[in-house]
Each structure stands twice: as structure tokens, then as C-alpha cells.
Amino acid sequence: MRTSLCDTFGIDYPIFAFTPSEHVAAAVSRAGGLGVLGCVRFNDTDELERTLTWLDDNTDGKPYGVDIVMPMKIPTEGTSADLSAYIPEDHKRFVDQTLLELGVPPLPEGEGREGVLGWLHSVARSHLDVALNHRPVLIANALGSPPVDVIEKAHEHGVKVAALAGAAKHALRHVENGVDIIVAQGYEAGGHTGEVASMVLTPDVVDAVGPDVPVLGAGGIGSGRQVAASLALGAQGVWTGSIWLGTEEYRNLASNRGWETAFLRATSSDTVRTRIYTGKPARLLKTRWTEAWASQDAPEPLPMPLQNLLVAEAHNRINASHDPDVISMPIGQVVGRMNAVRPVADVVASLVEEYDEAVARLETYRK
């Protein structure tokens, strides 16, 4: 399992792992892939500074990347307090009533009430500034192309830029803006995702951008067979996310005991694509929380970043309740394959072993 991207980034396997956990990211990099730390959870740049310093010190000198959330067009800015004035009272009442009906207890006074400011453009820029003072080899943007000046700044530091695309036309715009690597994110994926499945999207994007622009296949990848399929479709590597939520290292970040119960019992049919998490379409685990938002009396989700600010405290309360029937968490359809909690190194090893087995099996068909 070796492509030109392995030489580009100095990695053993073209396995790129998005994760909000620095422990998972470090473990993936140490195992030969490229761990990519999601920065959206960091409201405090000092905390991000400490986390990236930890990554510098705990990756055995291996490379890693960071993922930011930065729209190319700068939205109306402000603090979470300023923006909360744009949230309708009916939406606030619906959230409060839903939490009451679901039996989600309140948080202790003063705990966990601030929204995730990483969805704001200015905060994402501060994440980039902090990251470039460390040693990432890749900056990925979860919302497509970042502004051109951001791409140029990353290039000045010798850092490659990746951007997610849910359609071939989006991938072409990314390349025009100077993006180096396209992540073709299929419909099956967790989090923000488009409407085209990976089997169709990956070759569409590969053909659109041409042979000089590397493409990472994303969406529904949880086994070596799926890695082989993605490379067979023309990708030069894979972008993975959901499978790392089921690792022992992720427990260092996730304190929600109900989360493991929820994903271990889930099937590939137990997800839903909805705008209730951030205001943009994202795939989540299907629970009583997502069902409440699908009811006839539920309001329409607000645009980003207002929706995230609306539900931020609700998510904190839900997480603190440890109730697997209510949990709110982005995850892809590959959740149906997540049947055990394993160390990151074991997951990487199994991806490589299964890939080799799949390629060997295909070779037998040529005889």
C-alpha cells in the first residue's frame, strides 16, 4: 500500500486519519499513517498551542496534519454573545423543551455553556497561525477551499493544503484556488458530506482534476478492502474519520460512557444526514435527539455558525448525561463495522493486512 503521497509526506501508508483527539492523531502517525488533528473544538488558542506542542513531542518525529473549519467567503463575524442575538427565541424554546422531554439533566451552574467558536472564520484563522508555528505537513479545510491568502500562507511555510469536495465541480474550484490535495468525501461519510456516493464521486473527481492532483477517497472506509476499492477508483490514498472513534486512544478525549454503547450496537442504517449539528448537511448517529429535530413541530435548522451556537450547551448536557439513546455525534455509515474498541496501531495494521489480502485475491482473478 504505497503511493506517491507516501513520498510527499514521509509516511509508510497513504492512510490519512481525521480526529479531534491528539492521542489518536499521534498514534496514527507513529503507526505509519498521517494523523490529522481537528481544531474546531479549541476555543482557546493557548490550549491548541499546548496540544500541538504535545503532538510535536509524541509523534516520534513522524509527520502530522491539522484540520480547520474556514469558509472561503467570510461570514458575518462577532463573538458567540454577539451572534446569539440572531438566534430566534422559538428555536431556543424548542431546544429547551426537547431536552426536558428527553430527560437530559442540566449542567452544574457555570459549566460547559460556551459554544464552539472554532466555527467562526476569525477563530479558524487563529488556529492556522498557531499551527504554522509548529510542524504540520498538511492543513486540511473541512469546508472546501480556504481563502487564497490562507493557501498562499501555508505554502510559504512549506505546508500542503487539502480541501474536501462533494462534487467534481467543487474539486475543480479547489484546484483553481491553489489547493494541493482533494478529499473526495462521499455521501456515506460522517460529518459534513455531499449527496454523491463514494463509488461514483471518487472517479468523477479523479477524472476532473487530472493526474497531477492527488485525490483522497473518503466515506465508508473502515477495512482494507475498502481502501483497495478507493485506490482502484483512482485515489492515491484514503481519508478516514469514523473508525478512529472506536479506538482506545479516543477514550482520552471522550468522557461520554454512552457513546461507546451507542456505536457498538449501531448498524450502517443507524445514521442520518441533517443540518441540525452545524447548519450544514452532516451525517450523525440516529438517536432520539435527531428524531426530535425531524418531527413536524421542529423548527428549520439555522445557518452556520448560528445552529452550532444554538445547540452547543444542549450537546454538552447530552454528553454529560451518558445516555446512548440521546447522544449527538457525527459518524458515517461505516459505524456498522465498528464492533469492538481497539488500539489505533491494531486498526492501522488490519487496514494494511486486509488491503494486501484484497489485492492478492484480485490477482487470482487474472489467472
Automatic annotation (TrEMBL):
Q: Which InterPro entries match?
A: Aldolase_TIM (IPR013785), NMO (IPR004136)
Example GO molecular function term? nitronate monooxygenase activity
Q: Which Pfam families match?
A: NMO
Provide the alphabetized UniProt keywords: Flavoprotein, FMN, Monooxygenase, Oxidoreductase
Identify the stretch annotated as signal peptide in this record. Answer: none
**Oxidoreductase among keywords:** yes
Protein name listed in UniProt: Nitronate monooxygenase
Q: Which organism is it from?
A: Nocardioides anomalus
